[in-house]
Known about the structure:
- The chain is of the alpha+beta class.
- It folds into 2 domains: 3-163 and 319-329, Ribosomal Protein S5, domain 2 (2-Layer Sandwich); 172-299, GHMP kinase, C-terminal domain (Alpha-Beta Plaits, 2-Layer Sandwich), CATH 3.30.70.890.
- Helix content is 29%, strand content 26%.
- The chain has 9 helices and 12 strands.
- Helix 1 runs parallel beside helix 2 (106-121), helix 4 crosses helix 7 (237-243) and helix 7 packs across helix 8.
- The two termini are 24 Å apart.
Amino acid sequence: MTSLTRFSPAKINLSLAVSGSRADGYHDLDSVVALLSLGDEVTLTQAETTTLQVVGEGVDLSAMPEDCERNLAVRAVRMLEGATGRSLPTAIAITKRIPLGGGLGGGSSNAATVLKGMVELWNLDLPEAELIRLAAQLGSDVPLFLLDGTVRMRGRGEVIERLPMANAKPLHLVLANDGTHCPTPQVYRALDAARGQTENFSFKGLTDGGVFCDTLCLSLREGKAEQAVQWVFNDLETPCLAHFPGVRSTAEALREAGCRGVLLCGSGGTVCGIVDRAEDGERVLAHPALAQCWRASVQTLPDGVMAAHGPLTPIVMVRIHVGQPCPQRLS
């Protein structure tokens, strides 16, 4: 095998509880994360040197780092080369459909897709546990994308657990992003400030995260929006909306457009609206209050379909960056 192409999905944190800061500078998290039908396309080809080519379909690429070695996909290749002691020159081509820095995990998903794809492309003998360990070194969100389906993520993201969703019905969502960039460290600092730097606290009045997780998963399996909106939450939502007016306006627009519930995606600035059916999502997309936003109608993915699932056809494409990065040869 000299080349392969894989779907690289976005994610949604349907619950995100944030505990006090850790000694390593991170925060402890407890989150139920689902993969989405929206995703990038990653093609890996055995080559003489490692290269990276990224093109955008309906998303702005201007925030991408000019130094390709900083890209998580390239760092994943370097990580595997270090772990195996082998040179693994690979041409990476990514078609981006997930907005950059929007809380949907596009870069982390690309890195995980490269890790899994490289194992297959180069016939590497690396067990899943080792891949998860390597993924955790790349970023807190990377490990969750190694598992096909809905997961519970704890620690700083390195502790992941598969949640059984084999016969789950899809939950229908609308995503909207007005282009506001929400630096993750700033959002976490705002959360810490709001909590007065308190290290120990309960979230949402809950004392048993396991019971909460089971209840949320039950609504996901049924694909019932009216149940899901009672359980989804994000501890980062309040500080993010308070510090970024554009994100707050997007959330208000989704409510005005008729979504059952609204949820911040990760640390922002994408906002998710929950709807009953796909056709309801189509009506939300057409609402005038969202006219200037990037937006897409998506659904959660059940277990076992990620590799075979094609990308969602973009319905609305705005804020396209005209100067796309060209292929670059790396040292």
